[in-house]
Design brief:
This protein has four helices and three strands. The longest helix has 22 residues. The chain is elongated and about 80 Å long.
Length: 116
């Protein structure tokens, strides 16, 4: 009986060590999703920023004619346009457009809008 118990413990110990070696001993936490309310708040902030950016050129027409990637300092061109949340954003170059659209939401949230 003692030998069986000893063999069982040895098997259990070796099995546990193999399992830890293969899977790691740290328990992985699942990635937390943002609560829906956070996402809604971000959408509202993005829409508010786009509305302010739309006013910079003096016309409220859902077209941001100044380049958002250049902090609205350069004139944008219609050939470098991007549609975001019902607004058309004009960029001064394809490079600015490409950089901006890598993470559109973050780019809009980081956008500094010049005050009057």
């Amino acid at each position: 009986m003692l030998t069986r118990l000893s063999n069982w413990r040895t098997c259990w110990l070796v099995g546990s060590m193999v399992l830890i070696a293969v899977t790691g001993c740290r328990k992985e936490e699942p990635e937390k999703e943002q609560p829906a309310s956070d996402a809604k708040v971000r959408v509202k902030i993005v829409e508010a920023k786009l509305a302010k950016a739309d006013q910079v050129d003096g016309t409220t027409d859902k077209i941001v004619s100044k380049c958002p990637a250049c902090e609205l300092a350069m004139d944008g061109k219609s050939e470098h346009a991007l549609q975001v949340s019902g607004y058309t954003l004009h960029f001064c170059s394809e490079k600015c457009k490409t950089e901006f659209e890598k993470d559109t939401t973050k780019s809009i949230l980081d956008l500094k809008i010049p005050e009057d």
